[in-house]
């Protein structure tokens, strides 16, 4: 892969970036490096967007993303600025990568040791060890071709796909099928199928609605490895913010944007007051880039005549799940859990149906447990464990204190029953985060935790564009645009948006 996006000079342009998630931070760095005068406005008290941190009573939690995957993307991002990730944070390679508990009492660890993983697959299905090698070889090819020619290289129009280069690169890739059918072509055992598909949660989809192209995630999982940045994902945020400082980005927190007015060369971006009765501020700019929720930007910050999409458009989209999150400070160790642990029903279709087909609080949830204190002793007081539980749930669900309390008991009971870790009487700190919080803190449509799901009709050119078709000089970045959901994808989105800005001004 070549080293960096091709971004022409934007010297002399004043640019306001709205939103300090990974997409906004990335875009700000690229544009500042290209010579622009960049101001980033963040609604909340800290930068990072969904990668916020919660600190209390000696515990420090990553509130959102907690898996460091695709290290090559971070290396490429920092490499654009002649820097490396190691200058800003350090990584630990996790071993095991993660542990899986199934609710029939079965338990496995996936390790960096591929011989172990082959033996593991073989133990479930004769020949599956060799099949794993075949699957991962296909996954690697898909990753290398897909990343270089369909992820880093934005193709916003249908005509961009109708050329001989695209046909040559895409020959043999599984572009149109669904993940469930693709995986079934390799493995018969349902548990092996689950191991090859659990990463779809990172894309906000299910095996039956996510394109088979995303088999590339298994290369990320098995071949590239799972890492932990010391200090958590928040340390990565700090590193990118520090890079932006070095490049000249100005950051303003507690600056909730209330309106975007104007066009290229004459924008005014208004922010709310700080709650003490004072007026908000007005920022003037030549260009505006929004990393705020795309639907919120269009429906709430722009006048109706300047919107690309109607409310009906957003209502018709398939959104990625929201989440029920429990942040727990626990007395003592949790020896049965690893840094990353998955707890899965042997039949998980019901849970996916209760997210995408008939929305409801899951009766038999599949969920994720993170215990960073297994790796990092700075995230919890001595003698305690830092643990959070994440249950994917449907966006837009009713979310009340009573429902949260009821579901808390469901989750804690399930953890005890299926992992052997009884937590009820050991919790010394607790906080929940759910649908209403995603909507309130991040202005997320329907309280989705991630944005638009990666269905076939919402992938690539079928996602909303980086450049507004109705407001000259307005651009978008982040998970709703291409390439999509996830921290690495949002970093890449920042480069794509910066290229678009440089190409069109």
UniProtKB/TrEMBL annotation:
Where does the Amine oxidase domain lie?
23-501
Report the EC code(s) recorded for this entry.
1.3.99.26, 1.3.99.28, 1.3.99.29, 1.3.99.31
Q: In which pathway does it act?
A: Carotenoid biosynthesis
Keywords, alphabetical = Carotenoid biosynthesis, Oxidoreductase
Cited InterPro entries: Amino_oxidase, Carotenoid/retinoid_OxRdtase, FAD/NAD-bd_sf
| Claim: Transmembrane is one of the keywords in the record | no
**One Gene Ontology term from the biological process aspect of the record:** carotenoid biosynthetic process
One Gene Ontology term of the molecular function aspect: oxidoreductase activity
Q: What is this protein called?
A: Phytoene desaturase
Organism of origin: Halorubrum alkaliphilum
